[in-house]
UniProtKB/TrEMBL annotation:
Belongs to the short-chain dehydrogenases/reductases (SDR) family. The keyword Membrane does not apply. Keywords: Oxidoreductase. PANTHER family: DEHYDROGENASES, SHORT CHAIN (PTHR45024), SCP2 DOMAIN-CONTAINING PROTEIN (PTHR45024:SF2). It comes from Streptomyces curacoi. This is 3-oxoacyl-ACP reductase. Pfam families: adh_short_C2.
């Protein structure tokens, strides 16, 4: 594989003040890209920029909450103003408002959909317009989640947004193919402020912060590691080495990288003249209903004590 060199390219990474977003921004800068860091907290954004520049990279901050057209235009405009172009967009910004269905409010639902789904849409649209004008291709890297692939208890809003992001990646890969713009969704799994709230993971994350490595059953078996483990996928997808990769959902975490399948029909049955409720009931158990699909994110498989 050729060396990954993003020198001369400009990137926007939304929600990149800390956590996974900051790791993505650092990885892009380390491979030569100039980066617009985005966060809603000015101090956090400026600290992120400082950490990148002190490591030898180039970065500026744009403080704005994503979700609106105006915010998207500001982010793309900042890249063009500072670096003269835009080549890479990573839509990482997100929030959580977890509740079960019967307790979730309209505001809980709307806030998460606005940041994740509409934020991805508005930023990607603005980036696509600019990249098409430049005529040199580009990369849209959308951030998904296992919750969007399989659902997750208490995350109606988040799972719906992330499932929509996967669908948008597939759709936009077709629409932007002629412009040589690749579009992929990444599905990261890492030790973050969100995952450390899961009791089973908490002691391992705490040990990691104290300098102990994560055990192999997490890094390999669960594909669970640090934000930096996930970050390698971003400069790869932004590079010429991945120019033929588009419309995919790619998982990464710990020592594991994986390709998620697209939804597809797995069983079918036919009835001359169509179906009735009775004929469906007759054939269901032995045809399409013989092996129903599972839902939810599988619980971690911890070794026995």
């Amino acid at each position: 594989m050729p060396s990954i060199d993003l020198t001369g390219k400009a990137a926007v990474v939304t929600g990149s003040g800390r956590g996974l977003g900051l790791a993505y921004a650092h990885a892009l800068a380390a491979h030569g890209a100039s980066v617009v860091v985005n966060d809603v907290d000015e101090a956090v954004a400026e600290a992120a920029v400082k950490s990148i520049t002190e490591a030898g990279g180039t970065a500026v901050a744009e403080v704005v909450p994503v979700g609106t057209t105006e915010a998207a235009d500001r982010l793309v405009g900042r890249a063009v103003e500072e670096f003269g172009r835009l080549d890479v967009l990573v839509t990482n910004a997100g929030i959580l408002r977890d509740k079960v269905l019967w307790k979730m409010t309209d505001d809980d639902f709307d806030a998460v959909l606005t940041t994740h789904l509409k934020g991805t849409f508005t930023c990607a649209r603005a980036a696509a317009v600019r990249m098409r004008e430049q005529g040199e291709g580009g990369s849209l890297i959308l951030v998904g989640s296992p919750a969007g692939q399989r659902g997750n208890f208490g995350q109606t809003n988040y799972a719906a947004a992330k499932a929509g992001i996967a669908a948008m990646a597939r759709t936009w890969s077709m629409e932007l193919g002629r412009a040589n713009i690749t579009v992929n969704a990444i599905v990261p799994v890492a030790a973050t402020a969100m995952t450390e709230t899961i009791p089973a993971f908490a002691p391992y994350i705490e040990a990691m912060r104290n300098g102990e490595p994560l055990p192999d059953f997490l890094r390999k078996g669960e594909g669970f590691g640090t934000p930096e483990d996930c970050a390698a996928l971003v400069p790869f997808l932004a590079s010429e080495a991945a120019r033929g990769v588009t419309g995919q959902c790619i998982g990464i975490g710990g020592d594991k990288v994986a390709l998620w399948s697209h939804p597809q029909e797995i069983a079918a049955a036919y009835a001359d003249g169509g179906w009735t409720p009775d004929t469906l009931a007759d054939v269901w158990p032995t045809s399409v209903g013989a092996e129903l699909q599972s839902v939810g994110i599988a619980a971690p498989r911890f070794p026995e004590a």
